[in-house]
Amino acid sequence: MSNTGRMRDEREVLALLQSWAHETPAVRTIILEGSRADPRRTPDALSDYDVAVYVDDSQPFVEDESWLDRFGPILVRWPRSPRPTAGPEWVTQLVLFDDGVRIDFQITDRPEIDAAALDAGYRVLFDRSGAADCLPESTGTRHLTKPPAEAEYADTLNAFWWDITYVAKGLARGELPFAKAMLDGIVRTEIVGRIVAWYIGAQYDWSVDVGVHNRWMHRYLSATDWDHYRRTLAGAEPRANWKALFETTAFVRTAGSRVAHALGFAYPWETDRKVTAWIEAVRGGQS
Length: 287
Fold this sequence. Notes:
Layout: H1 10-23, E1 27-33, E2 49-55, H2 59-63, E3 74-84, E4 90-97, E5 102-108, E6 123-127, H3 150-172, H4 176-203, H5 217-220, H6 223-230, H7 238-263, H8 269-283
Parallel strand pairs: 2-5
Antiparallel strand pairs: 1-2, 1-6, 3-4, 4-5
Helix pairs in contact: 3-4, 3-7, 3-8, 4-7
């Protein structure tokens, strides 16, 4: 957080957004989303203000950035200027201001409000036209972990036992950056994260949201499971990364087999056994 002065609180930031909307005729509706609008979450001072801004024409907000001046000095932002990022209908400008407040603006000139996107919770901050009057109440179910189909489960476990071999090869060759990119990037983020979410979902009858990149997994894993997961993490020392690799395979073996049992699927024990033996052989006498 910047040391330039006191950080504005939520009341001040929301009042600023509302006054800006009142003073800007092109703004039709502003809806607050994310953690600050989700009744099931407790935001803190670092929580973003995720705002969807519905306007008559989004192009002026791209061509002239002076509208941002209303919100204070900017520390850093992304992208470097307002522009569409995820699709042509939405203009993105994520801003961290000098006092530590972060506002994520998503601006659109589409006429209708995407009600489905608001299911995790929302608050209408401003509505000049009454377009938000008929929005349904949020159910909080959109981001709940859902059980995988059997083919998805099988493909994911197969991908894990395939990609983990790259980690072993990278460590055996002394290619630490590559091994870390595979273990902590592709394997952990794209594969293990999915398996962990399923593991937690199965334990909680598919009624929880573990967050982006499983940010809240520690809230749901048992102390034993959380400690095991932490052992899959390592720094830069090669021996520690070999240990983390084997801890990762052990964790996936436990979580993956329990998910399979809960859903009536088959865990790939034979692939597990063969690949584990292959990794042990690749490691050989390295330490």
